[in-house]
Design the sequence.
């Protein structure tokens, strides 16, 4: 905690007088803070109490911030290093980092008491040990750098905490920008470390990495430090080593494999000084990591103008990948990625482990790729497995997560391949890991993935190594026998040098021993070439897929008004079986379809209710209609959305048993409004001009509005009954009736259309109660004028319209078209 020690005052000047004189300066200090951290204002308030008064002792701050940090909410976070590394230009310079951990933000020299000759220095500082100090300092530097406005256009300035790197295409621009940055920082009170300064160089060391045009490598100091480390003896020493190595894991293809084993030696509950049980296998993994750091190549900096290529594989419960980009005629690595599979994924069959590994590596690569185009190469049909998978090894939540990463990512393209990128073979050798990969790739993965063995021949059902001459990882080793003659399947020994090894299913130490000690005696691999595994894509539909298909059928029948009996048609059954690729799939029965339609209605009704609950004003329209001697009332809701769009949807189709008296119609409308909870929001109800409907709405508290379409069609009907078109329409209806009421005449009309090369269409009879039916009759009759004349010439006694009446019908068509 912060502890403030009281001062000892020797002069006549009191603390109260000092506080009064400093109050204005303290307020200014508080105003300079912008709230970038939760404790910034309070911190400045405490820090301003630290004063130096000539020969007077002042307050001093004790840095014990453990308890304070426990109460601090998460503030600003530090950026990740991979978000900083982009492509610097040909010339780079780096400013030094701040030498003073209690960085000096500003310093004010104030006048002391009159006549005393004493002065006060007020210092604003960030407390050492405060949890948010790095983030607050980084934000302060960023605000200072934001004031620069005269940098050359080709310059890029990157900041990571107190480290700055400046890159440019030319040396002159880089030097000019470096001077500008240093001046801006100096004016703000920052100090640069001259010893750490690297001024306008083509290659600089930044964050422990060597940065050069298009490349980055591990710094020599870091490599030498790791190379000289001795085998750890305690938990703390091992954790320190793993921390250094993991900072460089982008250069190690199989880092997670060795990291996984070494971390298994650490007991989380053990104290830091606990002695490790260091084994030969642990020494092998330790040496492999040191060797990988020593031999680490330079990695390319990502270029977002080029396509990324990601090669993925899974081995020993670890997901491995290498991210590449084309460089000239070859591909250059950008990063090596590896991560241990979780316990659930590690216990899955090989094909599902490949899916999990691909998802993990893609997520890791996305931090570098940043949603730019990327092609993923895997040894399994990952997309096909997810699309056609039927297994109990994976929960629906896990599967949906994999699908979101691998199938729903727009910038991702999955390309199966039978070849293995050599970069994924690790530092333990290539030939032995190719043999292991053959074992994984040569397994059959059919029968719903349920019977997928853990290993090929040479491994038991429980994943235990079998004795025999199978070759592969076990070749050259034998199980050790116990004193009673039984086989100890947890210990093996080398047939050549008799060295003993612990065996826990992993063969890494065995392969390393053979490669390092007996490479000359290793037999040549007789494994067959790599081949792509296949799956049986004709599996029965899962229950969820079958239910989804049934729901889709019900929605189609309801939406397109198809007869429910269609589900019993044999042709419809054949179509479904072909579409679902499952001959055992049975279409739903009528009862099932009816039930699904009701479920769809209830679900849609709840959604519509939620929409109407957000609306302030609603208008209803209603109309009665008859089907098969049954009366129905249809009610539709209309409202205007926030974007001023007219929205409408049907609320209900209500079967009515009563006579259409005004009182009965009123209750029907009110029941619909109550059912949908819109009584208080309804303003008007639109109906036709029927007297009972008008009277029904007037009995409610809503305004009645006549339907414009009804009024227009009524006007058209009345006008046609009293106009100069009556005689022409009478003759037109007689011609239509001649062909509509006689099958023989209809057949002759059809034959004439064929002979004249006309489209075969029947004539249309208008109905007074059907809107636009007169227009449709006139249009069809006018288009068949030549056909009707040809039929009349064959001794048909037709009373055809005269030429003048045909002209009237054409003019009538022009008049009625806008009224449609």
Sequence:
């Amino acid at each position: 905690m912060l502890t403030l020690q009281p001062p000892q005052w020797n002069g006549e000047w009191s603390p109260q007088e000092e506080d009064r004189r400093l109050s204005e300066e303290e307020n200014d200090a508080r105003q300079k803070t912008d709230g970038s951290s939760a404790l910034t204002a309070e911190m400045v308030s405490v820090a301003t109490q630290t004063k130096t008064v000539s020969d007077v002792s002042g307050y001093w701050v004790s840095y014990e911030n453990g308890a304070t940090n426990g109460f601090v909410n998460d503030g600003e976070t530090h950026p990740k290093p991979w978000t900083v590394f982009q492509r610097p230009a040909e010339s780079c310079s780096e400013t030094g980092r701040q030498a003073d951990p209690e960085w000096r933000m500003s310093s004010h020299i104030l006048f002391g008491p009159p006549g005393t000759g004493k002065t006060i220095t007020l210092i604003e500082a960030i407390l050492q040990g405060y949890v948010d100090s790095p983030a607050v300092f980084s934000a302060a530097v960023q605000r200072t750098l934001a004031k620069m406005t005269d940098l050359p256009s080709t310059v890029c300035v990157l900041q990571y905490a107190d480290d700055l790197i400046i890159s440019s295409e030319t040396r002159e621009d880089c030097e000019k920008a470096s001077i500008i940055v240093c001046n801006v920082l100096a004016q703000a009170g920052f100090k640069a470390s001259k010893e750490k300064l690297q001024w306008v160089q083509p290659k600089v060391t930044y964050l422990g990495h060597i940065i050069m045009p298009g490349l980055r490598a591990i710094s020599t100091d870091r490599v030498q430090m790791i190379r000289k480390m001795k085998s750890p003896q305690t938990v703390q020493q091992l954790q320190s080593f793993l921390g250094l190595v993991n900072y460089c894991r982008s250069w190690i293809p199989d880092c997670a494999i060795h990291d996984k084993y070494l971390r298994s030696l650490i007991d989380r509950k053990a104290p830091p000084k606990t002695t490790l049980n260091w084994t030969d296998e642990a020494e092998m993994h330790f040496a492999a990591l040191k060797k990988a750091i020593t031999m680490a190549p330079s990695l390319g900096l990502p270029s977002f103008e080029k396509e990324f290529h990601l090669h993925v594989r899974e081995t020993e419960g670890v997901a491995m990948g290498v991210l590449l980009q084309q460089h000239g005629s070859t591909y250059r690595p950008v990063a090596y990625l590896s991560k241990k599979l979780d316990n659930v994924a590690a216990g899955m069959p090989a094909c599902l482990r490949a899916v999990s590994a691909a998802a993990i590596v893609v997520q890791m690569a996305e931090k570098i790729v940043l949603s730019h185009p990327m092609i993923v190469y895997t040894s399994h049909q990952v997309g096909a497995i997810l699309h056609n998978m039927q297994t109990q090894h994976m929960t629906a939540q896990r599967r949906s997560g994999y699908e979101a990463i691998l199938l729903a990512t727009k910038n991702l393209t999955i390309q199966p391949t039978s070849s293995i990128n050599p970069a994924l073979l690790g530092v333990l050798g290539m030939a032995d890991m190719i043999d292991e990969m053959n074992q994984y790739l040569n397994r059959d993965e059919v029968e719903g993935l349920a019977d997928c063995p853990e290993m090929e021949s040479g491994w038991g059902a429980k994943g235990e190594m079998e004795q025999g001459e199978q070759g592969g990882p076990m070749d050259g080793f034998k199980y050790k026998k116990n004193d009673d003659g039984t086989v100890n399947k947890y210990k093996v020994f080398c047939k050549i040098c008799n060295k003993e090894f612990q065996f826990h299913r992993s063969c890494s130490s065995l392969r390393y021993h053979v490669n390092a000690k007996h490479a000359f005696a290793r037999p040549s691999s007789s494994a067959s070439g790599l081949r792509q595994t296949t799956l049986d894509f004709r599996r029965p539909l899962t229950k969820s897929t079958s239910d989804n298909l049934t729901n889709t059928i019900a929605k189609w029948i309801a939406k397109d008004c198809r007869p429910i009996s269609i589900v019993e048609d044999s042709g419809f059954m054949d179509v479904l079986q072909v579409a679902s690729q499952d001959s055992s799939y049975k279409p739903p029965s009528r009862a099932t379809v009816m039930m699904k339609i009701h479920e769809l209605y209830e679900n849609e009704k709840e959604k519509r209710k939620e929409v109407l609950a957000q609306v302030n004003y609603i208008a209803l329209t209603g109309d009665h209609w008859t089907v098969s001697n049954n009366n129905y009332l249809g009610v539709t809701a209309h409202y205007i959305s926030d974007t001023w769009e007219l929205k409408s949807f049907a609320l209900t189709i209500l079967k009515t048993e009563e006579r259409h008296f005004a009182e009965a119609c009123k209750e029907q409308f009110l029941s619909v409004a109550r059912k949908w909870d819109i009584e208080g929001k309804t303003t008007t109800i639109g109906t036709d001009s029927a007297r009972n409907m008008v009277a029904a709405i007037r009995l409610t508290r809503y305004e009645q509005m006549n339907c414009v379409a009804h009024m227009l069609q009524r006007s058209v009907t009345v006008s046609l009954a009293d106009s100069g078109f009556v005689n022409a329409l009478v003759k037109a209806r007689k011609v239509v009736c001649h062909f509509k009421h006689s099958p023989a005449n209809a057949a002759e009309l059809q034959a004439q259309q064929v002979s004249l090369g006309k489209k075969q269409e029947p004539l249309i009879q208008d109905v007074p109660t059907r809107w636009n039916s007169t227009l449709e009759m006139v249009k069809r009759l006018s288009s068949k004028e030549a056909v009707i004349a040809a039929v009349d010439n064959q001794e048909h006694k037709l009373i055809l319209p005269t030429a003048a009446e045909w002209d009237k019908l054409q003019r009538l068509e022009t008049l009625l078209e806008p009224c449609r």
